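Re: the pair you flagged

First of the two:
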Amino acid sequence: MTSTVASLVQSINVHTNDINAVSFSSQLLATASSDKTVRLWNTDDFTEATFSPLCGHTYQVYCCVFSSFGKYLATGSMDGKLILWDTKTGQRLASFQHQSKNCIRSCCFSPDSTTLVSGCDDNTLCLWDLGLRKFIRSLEIHEASVVTCVYSPDSVFLVSGSTDGDLTVWDGKYGHGKPLTFTMDGHDLGVTGCDFSPTYGSATVSEPLSTHYLLASCGNDNLVKLWDMTGGLGGPNVKLSLRDTLMGHTCQVMSCCFSPNGTLLASGSGDKTVRLWDPHKGEPLHCIESHSRFVTCCAFSADSVFLATGSNDRTVLLFWNCMY
């Protein structure tokens, strides 16, 4: 494997507890921690924003994500709250809760920024209308906590994963309550993360009225998996088929993400490493061994130049992606 794929350029050591999530917009990096805070960092020099930290949660913050154009930041916590923030001012714009008020484990925006989705320990997904700031509907099929959710790049489909190991595909446009398809035991010890390639598939029409996507998932089985997903435009004909299994981690894989240019896939693991993969060939490229504890999260910058990784060692590390 190449030894010069990524080089460490910055270490953030401000949080006082585990790092649980990292997310980039074009101008900011968000870091979420079990210390109950979310901190924002300017991507030009990684200095902290003047209105950081965001202190609206009362327990561990498990997820954070920016909307497509970086206008909003959503954060979810063990306190059961999903908070929407203004990224220019740090102002709290809205707060949502599932009816159960259970822990929020995951959240994502639709790429068209019309909908916010949250996954919860009550085994459900909730859809929220961003414009009206109101509940749309709940999606229920999982029999365990919904720990990851992601939209396809064209906002047509929504995929969720849970601790029971299932991957489920939903109608992302209209939020119909029944799943379009699901894969039982996508990871037989539980799914921990999933992500769509932002460049592969949604522009590739594989069959008439059908679109092809590339989905990555990771789990407690120490594996990263790549899936071919085809979906009939405007219809329920969705297929999810295993394309490749990426082996190399020696402990549970806790996160995975594509670079925005689609050329790299990163995965973070309980084995304290971050691995970089060629998602098209299914081949390993590089292994980063810079954290002293579990690597819980990873994210590429909007221009694919930087990779941020977060860990139970309470640090966020920034690497320069030499392959962008």
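Second of the two:
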Amino acid sequence: HVFVVCSSMTSLSGSNLTNLPSHITIPSYDRSKVVPGIAHIGVGAFHRAHQAVYVDRCLHLPGHDASWGIVGIGLLPFDVPVRDALLAQDGLYSLNEKGPDGAKSSRIIGSIVDYIYAPGNSKAVLSRLSDPSIKIVSMTITEGGYLLDTKGHFTLGHPAVVHDLQHPEEPTSVFGFVVGALDMRRKANIAPFTVMSCDNVRHNGNMAKKAFLAFANARDSSLAQWIEANVSFPNSMVRVRPDVMHGHQHTFHECPKWRIRNAEYGLSRHAYGFL
């Protein structure tokens, strides 16, 4: 990733969307009325170039349901730059596309309406995930993030797992937060959310279910039984996003804080931090 300071360019924010060049598509929906229905853990390149874009397109549809915005959640130190950029830009970023015919288009993605950095804010994350408005908790945490060994056994001895089992009120891992929030919803008689893995692994939903159930069982066997009976873990198909190729870095004359390239049937897609 290359970080470029563009002092002559206007920083992206909700207050200056209408000042952007006319060729850039901006959210036509009222973002102030959009509330999160999806919590996504790990707001990386893939999420910004795909899932957040699909939600943004749905929010543009006539008669759209404004209860399907996204709240991003970061768990790790390398999520700090994402937090800082998103909060500084009111959750906005640009998506630039180049088709096989060379045609280019740019749009501002507005579906991410909130972001919580978990370290130091565990209660805020648990509160948000246990809110009935959250219907899906999706994640991109990489294959290794599920802590399953080569035999498919969950690593109960991982330091973060040990910590979260001993301190359920102050979780640090994805397992502590997701299972903890499900337990809060169970006790409050609130319907559970769907747990949706978006990682590039075959049968990712099955893998996620095995990992989360193993953690839940170590915490409370009755909770694990409730999760198995009531929580959905769908499998999803992932389209791989390769890194940006040499020569594409400044194609759109942007200030590329987050540079992404996605290959989709000959389409080059870049999601940048700001314009």
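The longest strand covers residues 36-41.

-B.
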